[in-house]
Design a protein that fits this description.
The protein is mainly alpha-helical and 218 residues long. The protein has eight helices and four strands, in the order H-H-H-H-H-H-E-H-E-E-H-E. The strands form two sheets. Strands 1-4 form a two-stranded antiparallel ribbon. The chain has a two-stranded antiparallel ribbon with strand order 2-3. Strand 2 and strand 3 form a beta hairpin. The chain is globular and about 60 Å long. It starts with 5 loop residues before the first helix and ends with a strand. The relative contact order is 0.13.
C-alpha cells in the first residue's frame, strides 16, 4: 500500500493543541481563586446567618470581604511582577470579582434587612452593574493600557469598592442596626417597601457603570 509522502503529511493542517486548564494556571491565578473562595464563603455564611440568626456568622461573611480584596490586589501584583498575563487570568479575575464584590454584598444586604420589593430590584441592579462594569473593562483593557501592560485608569469605580458597603453593614450589625432596626427605616412606595439604605447599593452600581468618571490606577 502506498504511504503518503512526508511532504504531503506535513501539508496537512495540524489539529489545534488541546487547551489544558491546569497547565495554563499561573501562581497569580491561585490567588484569584482564593478571592472567589472568599466570595462563596461569604455567601454561605450569609445563608447560615439567615437560618440561625447567629451574628457571628454575619460577621464572618463581612470579614471575608477584605480578605477577598487582599487576594484580588495580590493576584494583580504577582502577575505583573512575574510578567504572567493571560486571557484565562483576566477571565478568572472578573468571575471571582462578580462573586466576592457583587453577589456576596447583595446577599449580605438582603440578609441585613433589605428585603422590600424595591430593595430586591436595587440589589439585582447593583449586581448587574458590577457584571457590566467587568465586561466593559475586559473589552476595553487593551485600548486603555495604551499599548502597555497596565491600564492607566478605570472607567467608573472598580467593583471591589463594594467592600465599603460590606464593611458598613458590619458596622450596622455591630450596633444592632439591621433587620427591622435598619438605619433610615423603611418607606412604603406603592405595593413595595424601600429601605433608604438600599439607595447606597444603587449609587455604588451607578458609579461602576459611569462612562465619565475616570479614576487613575496606581
Amino acid at each position: 500500500m502506498d504511504r503518503p509522502s512526508s511532504s504531503a503529511a506535513d501539508a496537512r493542517p495540524r489539529e489545534p493543541r488541546h487547551f489544558s486548564m491546569l497547565r495554563e494556571f499561573q501562581l497569580a491565578d491561585f490567588f484569584t481563586l482564593g478571592n472567589a473562595a472568599c466570595g462563596v464563603g461569604a455567601v454561605l455564611f450569609t445563608l447560615s446567618y439567615m437560618a440561625s440568626g447567629q451574628l457571628l456568622e454575619f460577621f464572618a461573611a463581612v470579614a471575608l470581604a477584605p480578605a477577598a480584596l487582599l487576594l484580588d490586589v495580590l493576584d494583580g501584583r504577582i502577575a505583573r511582577a512575574r510578567n504572567q498575563h493571560s486571557a484565562l487570568g483576566r477571565e478568572l479575575d472578573s468571575l471571582s470579582d462578580v462573586i466576592s464584590f457583587g453577589v456576596a454584598p447583595a446577599a449580605l444586604g438582603y440578609a441585613a434587612g433589605l428585603r422590600g420589593g424595591w430593595d430586591a430590584l436595587i440589589l439585582v441592579y447593583f449586581v448587574c452593574c458590577g457584571v457590566s462594569r467587568l465586561a466593559r473593562f475586559n473589552v476595553t483593557a487593551e485600548s486603555l493600557s495604551a499599548g502597555g501592560d497596565k491600564v492607566k485608569y478605570f472607567e467608573g469605580t472598580p467593583i471591589p469598592t463594594s467592600v465599603l458597603l460590606t464593611l458598613l453593614l458590619g458596622v450596622m450589625a455591630w450596633f444592632g442596626a439591621i433587620d427591622e432596626w435598619l438605619w433610615g427605616g423603611a418607606w412604603q412606595l406603592g405595593p413595595w417597601a424601600l429601605h433608604p439604605m438600599a439607595l447606597l447599593f444603587a449609587l455604588s452600581g451607578t458609579l461602576m457603570i459611569s462612562k465619565t468618571l475616570r479614576i487613575p490606577k496606581w
